[in-house]
Design goal:
- By secondary structure, this protein is of the alpha/beta class.
- Helices cover 31% and strands 18% of the residues.
- The strands form six sheets. It has an eight-stranded parallel sheet with strand order 9-6-5-4-3-2-1-10.
- Strand 7 and strand 8 form a beta hairpin.
- The longest helix has 20 residues.
- The chain is globular.
- The termini are far apart.
- The structure holds beta-D-glucopyranose (BGC).
C-alpha cells in the first residue's frame, strides 16, 4: 500500500476504530485463542464490536489458529484492517537456542543474528508478525531473574549483540515473509532494579544512563527495530511509561525513533500503583502524552481515550499520530496485501524444528558453554571412559530455559542420554533441585563410591529464572550442596556441570570440584552440546558476559568500574591500610571475571603492539595482537581489546571493552589479529551530556579475559570536545 493510502485509511476511521488500534489484547479474548498469559490477569468483559476493532493480540500462534482468527476478524472489521499478532519469541520459537545470556557468552554476533533469523523464520511460519525481543537491558545484578534474557554487564557487547539480533529478526529492508518485526525492550534501564528485586525502582543519573544503558537501545534502533517497549520501572523519578523526557526527548527526538512504542503488560494501569496517576483515565492521558502508541492489557486507552478526544484536540492529534504508526507497521509487514503473510500448515511443518535449525541451535550451545575450571586437565573425558552421573540435572531435560513457551525439550535431551552415546554411563540423580531424600542420596553416594570421577549435574530450574524470579541467595540449593560435599568427602574427583539462567556464587562448588562447566540453559540440543564439550569433540570457547561474584554481598560487581579516590594498590600495603575501597570480609575481585573462560588447548596472548602511538580523528590507531597455541590441540580464543583513558572530564572506567574477536588457533600455531581503533571508541558522556572524545593519554589493553591484559600507551591528538575554559 502507498503511504498516501495508509493516510487515507486513517481518515476513514471513526474515533472508536482508531482507539481500537491502540489496544492490545491477550489471546483469551479471541474465539478459540489459546492463551499464554505472561502478566497479571483481571477478569474482563469485552463486547464483540469492541473486540473486532482491536489492533493487535499477543500470545497466539500456529498457522491454523492464526489463519482462522484473522479470517474471522477481517470478516467483522468494517475497514478490513488486519490484526497484528505479537508474541515473545526470545531465544527460539520451536527450535530453542541457548538463553540470550548464554548466546552472549559465545562472543559471536553471527550466532546471535542467526538464532534470531531462525526464530523469525519459524515464528513467521507460525503466524507471528512481531516479537517482543531483543531485550537489551544492561544487567549487573544476578539476583534479578531476567538477567537470563540479557546479554550481560558490558555496554559494548550489548550494543553489538542488540544490533545483530534485530538484523536477524528483521532481515533486509524491506521485511519479507520469512522475517518478523523486532520490538526492542524494555525502554529503559529495566535491568537495574534496586536490590535486584523485580519491578523495583531504578535510580541512576542521566549521565550514567546515557553512558552505559542507552547505547544498546540506540544500537537496536539504528539497526531499524520497528518497535520499542516501555519498561515497568521508574527512571529519573517518573515511571518510564509516563516519562515524557525519556520517550519524547530521548527516544523520539534524539534517537529519531519513528516506529511503534508499546507499553509493557498493564504498565499504563500500573501508573496508578506507582502513584503518578489517580485513575485509569489519568494514566491513559499520561501515557499518550509520553508517546505510548499501544496499550498492552490495561484497557486504559479503550475505556478513556474516546471521552478525552472529544474534549481535547491535542488528544485527538496524538491518537491519529499513534494510529498512523500502527497502520504503517502493518503496511511494512505487508498485511494489507496478504493479511496471512503466506502462512500454511505445510510451510509451518517444513520450517519448524528443521534439521538445519537444530544443527544451528546445537552449534550456538557449543559456542556458549563456558569451562570455568579444569584442574589437572581432568577434562576432556577420554573416549570410552566409565562415568558416574549424579545431581538433579543428570536425567532432566529442563534445559530450554524461560521464554521458550513453544519449545518442547525432547526426552533424550538429557546429559545422561547424550553422554551415554559416548561413554559408559551410570546415572543416579540422588537429589532433586530442592529435594533431599536420605535413601536416594545414599544410593547415589553408594554408586559414586565405585568411581574415581563423578559428574555432578547441578543447577537451578528454569522456573526459577526469567521474569518475577528475583532471589537473594544465588548459591546452589543446600540439597545439591549436600550431595556435592558428600562426594568430595568420599575423595571423588568431581566434574560439576551447572545449568542456570544467572551468574551464581560458585565459590564452594569451585573449591570442591576439579572441573566446573557452566551450561546456561543450552536449548533444544543442549545436552548434545554439553556431551561434545565434555568429551573434547568441541573445544570450549564460551566466555563470561558477566562477572561471577564470590558472594552475593559483592553484587553489583562488574569489570568496568570507576576508580575510587581510595582504590586498592595491589601491593602488600592494601592489607595494612584500612581506609581503602574494600571489604573487610571478602576480596574485591569476582570469582570469575567478565570475558573469562578456559579451553582445552593452551592459547596465550603473546603480544600487543601498535603501529602509531599517536592517533587522531583522521588517523585511526592500528593494533596488532599475536596469539600462540603451545598445545597439540586446535584452540579457540576470544581476543578482547579494552581502553582506559588516563584523565577524563568525568571519571573513566578502569577499562572498558571496545572490540573483540573470536578466533581459531591451530595446534602449535600462532594467529595474528589486526584492530583499527577509531575516535568512536574513545567517545564518552561528558557532564553536558555530549558524547565526544578528549585529546589526551590513553592505554590500550588486550587480553583473553578482562583481567589478563597487556597494555600500551597512546595519545589522541585532536579530541572534539571544546572545553568551556579553553
Ligand atoms: C514482560 C515483557 C513481555 C510481555 C508480553 C511482560 O510481562 O515484561 O517482556 O514482552 O510481558 O508477554
Amino acid at each position: 500500500m502507498e503511504n498516501t493510502q495508509v493516510q487515507a485509511l486513517l481518515e476513514e476511521m471513526t474515533i472508536e476504530e482508531k482507539i481500537g488500534q491502540l489496544g492490545q489484547l491477550s489471546a483469551d479474548f479471541f474465539p478459540n485463542g489459546q492463551a499464554t498469559i505472561t502478566g497479571p490477569m483481571q477478569a474482563q468483559h469485552m463486547d464483540l464490536d469492541t473486540l473486532y476493532r482491536s489492533g493487535s493480540v499477543l500470545g497466539i500462534s500456529g498457522a491454523k489458529q492464526v489463519r482462522a482468527i484473522q479470517a474471522d476478524f477481517l470478516a467483522h472489521n468494517r475497514l478490513h484492517i488486519p490484526l497484528l499478532f505479537m508474541a515473545d519469541v526470545v531465544h527460539g520459537y520451536k527450535t530453542i537456542f541457548p538463553i540470550p545470556l548464554g548466546m552472549a557468552a559465545s562472543f559471536d554476533p553471527e550466532i546471535v543474528k542467526n538464532a534470531s533469523a531462525v526464530a523469525a523464520s519459524e515464528s513467521a511460519a507460525g503466524g507471528i508478525h512481531v516479537t517482543f525481543a531483543p531485550m537489551v537491558d544492561l544487567v549487573r545484578d544476578p539476583r534479578w531473574g531476567r538477567v537470563m534474557e540479557s546479554t550481560g554487564e558490558d555496554t559494548y557487547l550489548n550494543t553489538v549483540l542488540a544490533a545483530a539480533s534485530v538484523q536477524g529478526f528483521q532481515g533486509e529492508d524491506p521485511l519479507d515473509e520469512e522475517h518478523i518485526a523486532a520490538c526492542v525492550k524494555h525502554f529503559a534501564a529495566y535491568g537495574a532494579p534496586e536490590a535486584g528485586r523485580e519491578y523495583n525502582t531504578v535510580d541512576i543519573s542521566e549521565w550514567r544512563f546515557r553512558e552505559q544503558y542507552l547505547p544498546s537501545y540506540a544500537a537496536a534502533i539504528k539497526a531499524q527495530a520497528l518497535l520499542v517497549m516501555t519498561s515497568f520501572n521508574t527512571l529519573f523519578g517518573v515511571p518510564a511509561t509516563a516519562n515524557q523526557h525519556l520517550m519524547r526527548d530521548i527516544l523520539r527526538e534524539e534517537l529519531d525513533f519513528s516506529g511503534v512504542l508499546i507499553s509493557d503488560w498493564d504498565a499504563i494501569g500500573e501508573l496508578i500503583n506507582h502513584g503518578v496517576a489517580g485513575d485509569l483515565d489519568h494514566a491513559s492521558d499520561l501515557a499518550l502524552k509520553a508517546g505510548v502508541d499501544i496499550d498492552m492489557m490495561s484497557f486504559a486507552y479503550s475505556r478513556y481515550l474516546k471521552r478525552a478526544a472529544t474534549l481535547d484536540a491535542e488528544t485527538k492529534r496524538l491518537i491519529d499520530e499513534s494510529v498512523l504508526r500502527i497502520l504503517e507497521l502493518k503496511n511494512t509487514l505487508g498485511l494489507f496485501e496478504d493479511p496471512y503473510r503466506n502462512i500454511s500448515i505445510e510451510r509451518e511443518t517444513a520450517t519448524e524444528l528443521s534439521p538445519a535449525h537444530l544443527v544451528d541451535a546445537q552449534h550456538a550451545a557449543e559456542e556458549s558453554i563456558v569451562l570455568l575450571k579444569n584442574a589437572g586437565q581432568i577434562l576432556p573425558l577420554q573416549p570410552g571412559t566409565s562415568v558416574f552421573l549424579t545431581g538433579p540435572l543428570s536425567e532432566s531435560n529442563d534445559l530450554l530455559g524461560s521464554w521458550s513457551w513453544q519449545g518442547k525439550s525432547t526426552p533424550d535431551n538429557t546429559i545422561a542420554a547424550a553422554l551415554g552415546q559416548r561413554c559408559e554411563v551410570k546415572s543416579v540423580p540422588g537429589v532433586g533441585y530442592h529435594a533431599l531424600n536420605e535413601k536416594q542420596l545414599k544410593v547415589a553416594l553408594g554408586g559414586a563410591h565405585h568411581y574415581d570421577t563423578v559428574i555432578a549435574c547441578l543447577g537451578i530450574p528454569s522456573s526459577e529464572s526469567g521474569e518475577a524470579t528475583s532471589m537473594t541467595d544465588i548459591r546452589l540449593p543446600e540439597e545439591q550442596m549436600t550431595l556435592l560435599r558428600a562426594l568430595a568427602a568420599d575423595g571423588k574427583r568431581i566434574i560439576s556441570i551447572v545449568i542456570a539462567g544467572r551468574p551464581l556464587d560458585l565459590s564452594e562448588v569451585d573449591a570442591v570440584s576439579d572441573a566446573v562447566v557452566f551450561g546456561w540453559f543450552p536449548g533444544s540440543r543442549g545436552a548434545e552440546a554439553i556431551a561434545r564439550i565434555l568429551t573434547g569433540e568441541v573445544e570450549p570457547s564460551g566466555r563470561l558476559p558477566m562477572s561471577f561474584p564470590r558472594s552475593v554481598g559483592q553484587v553489583p560487581i562488574y569489570y568496568n568500574q570507576y576508580n575510587t579516590g581510595r582504590p586498592l594498590t595491589h601491593t602488600p600495603n592494601d592489607a595494612e591500610n584500612k581506609y581503602l575501597s574494600k571489604y573487610i570480609d571478602e576480596e574485591n575481585t569476582p570469582l570469575y571475571p567478565f570475558g573469562y573462560g578456559l579451553g582445552y588447548a593452551q592459547v596465550t596472548l603473546q603480544s600487543l603492539t601498535i603501529e602509531n602511538t599517536e592517533m587522531s580523528s583522521q588517523k585511526p590507531m592500528v593494533a596488532h595482537v599475536r596469539l600462540e597455541n603451545s598445545s597439540n590441540r586446535d584452540g579457540r580464543a576470544v581476543v578482547q581489546l579494552y581502553l582506559h583513558q588516563k584523565i577524563g572530564e568525568t571519571v573513566r572506567p578502569v577499562k572498558r571493552l571496545i572490540a573483540f574477536e573470536k578466533v581459531a588457533v591451530g595446534a602449535g600455531e600462532t594467529a595474528d589479529l589486526l584492530f583499527s581503533v577509531t575516535e568512536d571508541s574513545l567517545r564518552y558522556m561528558h557532564t553536558d551530556l555530549t558524547n565526544t572524545a578528549d585529546a589526551g593519554e590513553y592505554e590500550l589493553l588486550a587480553g583473553l579475559s578482562s583481567d589478563a591484559t597487556q597494555a600500551v600507551g597512546f595519545t589522541f591528538t585532536n579530541g572534539l570536545k571544546e572545553k568551556s575554559d579553553d
